[in-house]
Amino acid sequence: MCLAIPMQVIKLKGGSDTLLDPQIAIVETDGIQKEIRLDLVDREPVIGDYLIIHAGFAITCLDKRDAEENLSLMREMAAGMEDIPEGGSS
Amino acid sequence: MKYVDEYRSRKMVDVLRKELHEITHTPVRIMEVCGTHTMSIFRHGIRNMLPRQVELVSGPGCPVCVTPAGVIDAFIDLSRLPDVMITTFGDMIRVPGRQGSLADARAAGAEVEIVYSPMDGLALARKNPNKLVVFLSVGFETTTPTIAATILAAKNIGLANFAVFPANKIMPPPLRVLLQDPALQLDGLLCPGHVSIMTGAAMYNFLVQDYGLACAVAGFEPTDILQAVIALVKQVQSGRQCVENCYGRVVSEQGNRRAQELAATVFEPVDAHWRGLGEISLSGLALRREFAGFDVTRRLDITVTDAPEPPGCRCGEILKGICQPADCPLFGTRCVPASPVGPCMVSSEGTCAAWHRYGGLTDTDTFNPE
Amino acid sequence: MKNQNNCILLDHGSGGLASQELISSLFLQYLQNPLLHQLEDAAVLAEQHGRLAFSTDSYVVDPVVFPGGNIGELAVNGTINDLAMRGAQPLCLSLGVILEEGLPLELLEEIIMAIARAADYAGVPIVTGDTKVVPVGKADKIFINTSGIGVVEEGVDISTSQACAGDVILLSGTLADHGMTILTSREGLRIGGRVESDTRPLHFVTRAIISRFGAAIHTMRDPTRGGLGTSLSEIARATNLCIEIEEDNIPMKSEVRAACELMGLDPLYLANEGKCLVIVGPDKAEEILTTMRSVQEAGESAIIGKISNKHPGRVVLTTLSGGNRLVEPLSGDPLPRIC
User: Fold this and answer.
1) Cβ contacts (< 8 Å) between C268 and chain B: which residues?
2) Cβ contact A40–B142 (<8 Å)
3) Which of B26, B57, C188, C298 is in the most buried spot, having the most CB atoms within 10 Å?
4) pLDDT of C22-68, one tens digit each?
5) For chain B, which domains are there?
């Protein structure tokens, strides 16, 4: 029900006044940029962070460590699988 | 795209698919409750990667689909008023009420703008000071805080010509309604990943405690979905049901407190009507009294009337996962994406629309690689 | 021609002096060719050998100027491409323009310059034309119609009905560029980054492959509105054959792909204005690919799939992650979704 994608913070701007000039981020992925609001994130992002973007707002920061752990687990499984001959499943 | 493409890798999908086929030895019935999951499952062709014993059914997780026809009618009536500009997510444009859709109203001269963010609605209000710019506020826990933040921003800058039409909903009450229905025999729930960013994985604990349901919080890429299905099959087969967070890179146990607080500042729970499911206690959200000035229904004294479901339509059962789109006599004949009859066909992420677009018309086994 | 506001007036469409002035000072200044300059009621063309192809298309687009081009180029290239898809070499075009009163002359000049540039580059002259003006609100800035005539050489027979099982499907470049450009030009849907229209003529590409490979070229289509998904569905239905495509092999600019992800759009249904689908016999496919890639307009060509008898009338896509799904024709304008 809620489309959201990760984009990386490349610039932070504003923030001089929480009411009238709230901080916003320029985020990027694959050469496209979007200006997004940070009202909802529960920790201040820094440049290089990946934010999950939904409807023009960052809704959370992506935990890079968790992501890499999960990916390396899958890569290990994939590497292990390559040693087994194909066609053995179900 | 970083943190997207990796999770679509054919190699990793293969590995997970093989594991799933290896471990599955009993029938497991899983509901994906989120429309974005439904879309992703079809778009990536995941349904036909699953073992025969694993059945996926789609639940009421498309906010557009569950918005009652009476509310759609009220949106359209509103769009016809002079000096009103409607701003909305694209999803809402073709949803039919009793007298056509917003697209029809636009064709007849109404001002209807599609926006990516509710903040774009606010920007349009600043640009058009002589118009009342209304944002059609639909969405679940993920989207509601973005609208709350927009309303707070409008309040902060003292913007008087911006308002919303509140029709937001929350997930737990309809989940209870579904699980109390004896016709729906569910083993597991693929929990919506982006709702969970906001609510936290702990929100689903009641499903395990009260209904013995296996739960896995899932992301939206193929490896995310397969990992969660594997987790659910393992839970069901071992009899050790719990809430497993398979989307740990963005979902925490307690969720996004700041977003929760913001949403609670602006909105409060009310009873709400769901298309296909009927009235559900405290399942909707209304603006708190302090924000009444931003509520177009209070500002213009709009009342929403009940609208009956279209005759012959089985969306109610489809939303509950009791029947599949192909079981409905209207599906693919009178009810098609270009002229939808029921709510599940109207939004691109509705179950029927996704089936229609991405191949539910044929037997999925046809393409099973096995 | 100048007036106080430097814009189009109803007088410019009256047929009188203002009309003549508009035509000579704008249209004729940029669209220079002897046939047009005669200003006769019709252009009389030289004698031609071969069968004639004849096509027409009307162009309305909002915004009229967009990254990568404007409605002018679109109108020239679009009709050239329609002719090229039947294997014709375009000979000449007509140009009909409907202007909204109040259209800034500067904008009109920009569009006419684009028309002239596109026609020059393509080597296809505009030999006859017409201009009308309608009151404010009766048209949206500018509507253009172009019609074109082309010649089909002896032995060339390119049509949907020629496609057969075993054929290979090529696409002449990246998908969804134009559709995404127009969508992200709308207020509220803007994004940063290089997303631009692919408007371009395709007859250089089609000439290159037809002249070398002739009968091996079975079918050509330009997937404009409705996108690749709709074009392929139409071919599958018309021939009752199965089209199998690989998502992995479909060329896409990373920016366009990312924008699709951001807005929940399926690139298979977004418009292209300078891409062709070429369906060819399997033996020559690799050579045809090499030839296509040697032409500037099709440098990123790729083999995207094949035709079979597996699921008659259907288009089956193998997804990036190795799943399969059916591709149905587009129903309704593609809209960004958020939920």
Assistant:
1) none
2) no
3) C298
4) 998 899 999 988 888 888 889 999 999 999 999 999 999 999 999 99
5) 69-170+255-299 (3.40.50.11740)
